[in-house]
Structures are given as C-alpha cells and as structure tokens.
Amino acid sequence: MKLVLNFFFIFGNSVSLGTHGTHADVDDGPLLLSAKNIKNGGIYWDETDRRISYGEYEKIHSNFSLESGDVLLTIVGSIGETAILKDSEGITFQRSVAFLRPNNKITPDFLYSEIQTPIFQKELDSRKSTSAQPGIYLGDLAEIPLIFSTKIDEQKKIGEYFSNLDNLITLHQYKLYMGVYRKGTILTYFWEQRKVGELLSERIEQFPKSDEYPLMAFVANEGVAPKGDRYDRSALVNDTEGKLYKRTEFGDFIYSSNNLETGSIGLNKYGNATISSVYSIFRPTGIADSDFIGRRFIRKDFINEMVKWRQGVIYGQWKIHEEDFLKIEVMVPSLEEQRLIGSFLDNLDHLITLHQRKIKYILKEVFIWIILIKRVVLKKPLSPNYRIMVGRRKLLSILQNRI
C-alpha cells in the first residue's frame, strides 16, 4: 500500500502568500521583501530594499500575521529557495513568497531541510508554470508528497545536523571571500564611472525565426531557454514563420521592464536565438566583459537605478526605454580586471555548487537510504513511525541496483 502525505495533510489552511497589492514606498517603515531577498537559507536586505507605511503593513496583516518559526518558500521567479523566519517584527513579503506554518506533526528545521532535498526540488520544478515569470500555484504546492519521521525528537536531531552543516558551508564561503580580499589579487581602487551606453550597445534588428536562430523564451532566473509546452503560443499566431523577433547571441545582456525584481534580467548563456520583441537586448562593447556586466547589472543597487527610469502606472505597461537605460552611470574597473573578476566568481560559483551538491544534498539522500537499508538488511518490517512512499519489493529492487 502506498501512503502519500502531502502539504495539505501537514499544513491544512496554514499556507498563505505574500501581498498581491500595490504599495507606495516610504523612507522609514516595515520592509516589503520578495523572492530575491531569500537566498541560501537566509533572508537578506539592505538600505536599498523597499519599505511601506505602517498603515499599509496593518492592512496586509489584517487577516493573518507572520510568526517566528514560519518557513518561507519562494514560488515566483526564483523558485525553491527557503528560509526560517527568525524575527517577524517589521517585515512582510510580496506574493512571490509563500508562508508555511507547520502543525505539530513536523518541525520547522526538518521542513526547511526537506525542502532543499533533490527529491522535493524536482517536485517543485515539475509543477512550475513555464512562462516569462515561472510560478507555482498553492494548489499544486499542496500536492507535493513529503517523507518524514513522525518522531519529533528524531526530526529535531536531523534538522540540527543539517543546520550545523549549513553554518559550516557559510563559514568556508566567508573565509574564501575574505582571503581573496586581503590578498588583493583582483580587487583594486582603480574603478571609474561610465555610462551604460559606453559598455553596451542595443540590438534593434528584427528577423523571423530560423534554424540558426530558433525561437526561445527568456525565463526569469534562467535566461534564454527553450519554450515549454505551457508557454508556446505559436498555435495562436496565424503567420508564425513571418513574425519578427529580436535576435540575441551568447553574452548579450537582456532585461524585461515589467519583471526586473523577480529575475527577468541577465545574460544570454545559451547562444543564438530569437526572442519576443518586448525584451531589451544589448551586446557588450570593446571595453566591457559580458560576464562581469551580467553580474554587476543584476545587483539590487543597479536594478534600483533602473527602476527610477521606469514609466507607466500599472504592471504590464511598465517600460524602461533603452535610451534611458544607456544613460545610467555605474562604476567599473578596467577590461582586464573585469575579466579577472568574472573568471574568479565563475570558479567560485562552481566550487560552491560542487561542494554543496557533494556535501549537503547527497548526504540528505544518503540519510534516508541508511534508514531504509537498515530495515532491509536486518529484515525488519518498515516502521510505521517512518512515512515512505516505497513498497518493500520496489525498495529491494532499487537497493540491488545501487549496491
């Protein structure tokens, strides 16, 4: 018998979303954060993040309130990032973040660890809508199965173990960054202020799609990618072959005026493609390194400068004109130093990803397998205290292939 325990079983009605409304910014007030503020298990903000009035804050939380221990999950744009809310005072979130409040069947730390497993992340990925701004509906989220121990003490020990592992990874990342900074291998003070128009030039040519430049999508936090079935609207266009699109090539910088804050900005790391003409596309000039530009221009401080030029009053009609974008001023180093910084950060990202996959994600799967193997080797029936979705015959078959 297959036993499936999903989000609805665990949380019931204790799942909600951040605010959908439009709120005016103020200089001093509660923070209004979004999915971009949740990264690597933490919640990060600075003086550039949005703040709203206390009146607006009270309206948002008239029917519910955030509590310490709530588990946050990003479900729009950057999907699958999670964090545990430690302090709920003076903070709220936009609709790109879901709030999960576990009942007495599961602890926040264990849920936080469970969300980060490859199994759960794969479930999220299979349910996301493929569009310019990927997202997951709460109804789809509620169907995701969870594997967990019903012994709270056991959950606490597992959650504590992986929390310590997260802290260890963070410590090593910090040491690596500080070691590079102190040695001064790539960081100097010889940066100069330039207009974006000196670093990038706009691509304005439009052509029909072709075999050399296939029709692609520009997906938030992913970049240029094949169109998914749910997003391919070619069947609705009478003359798809004759329709004009913008061409883009590897290393181009692309942005969407409407979805900057949720990740629709970045480099083309795919190659030759055609995409919708609603996107703004730029190629690097001879004094700009595309990898450095791609990293520098997605920072919050630069995006905030871009938003100042945005025109239009409602979502869907916002526009940052290309000529205004090219007027923005930014501090950059020499081309050689740009390349060194881009290369260094690429290598660092690769190293961090490699260690996280080897140490963090694999260990989480191994931990589950250890429990299952013990029961098979000792020929004990699977304990009713451990909820699983795998039958004994299927488990034995899988183990034979693994050993």
Question: How do the strands and helices of this protein lay out in sequence?
Answer:
Elements: H1 7-11, E1 15-17, E2 31-33, E3 38-39, E4 42-43, H2 54-60, E5 71-74, E6 82-84, E7 91-93, E8 97-100, H3 108-115, H4 118-127, H5 138-141, H6 152-183, E9 192-195, H7 196-199, E10 200-202, E11 206-207, E12 217-219, E13 223-225, E14 245-248, E15 253-255, E16 265-267, E17 273-275, E18 280-284, H8 290-296, H9 300-307, H10 322-325, E19 329-332, H11 335-377, H12 392-402
Parallel strand pairs: 2-7
Antiparallel strand pairs: 1-8, 3-4, 5-6, 5-8, 9-19, 10-18, 11-14, 12-13, 14-17, 15-16, 15-18
Helix pairs in contact: 3-6, 6-11, 8-11
Unreliable sequence segments: 1-13, 180-189, 235-239, 384-396, 398-403
Structural class: alpha+beta
| Computed CA radius of gyration, to the nearest angstrom | 24 Å
What is the end-to-end distance?
Answer: 25 Å
* Counted beta strands: 19
Q: Helical element count?
A: 12
Going across the major beta sheet, what is the strand order? 1-8-5-6
Strand content: 15-25%
Q: Overall 3D geometry?
A: globular
* Helix share bin: 25-40%
Q: Tell me, rounded to a whole number, the average pLDDT.
A: 76
Largest sheet at a glance? 4 strands, antiparallel
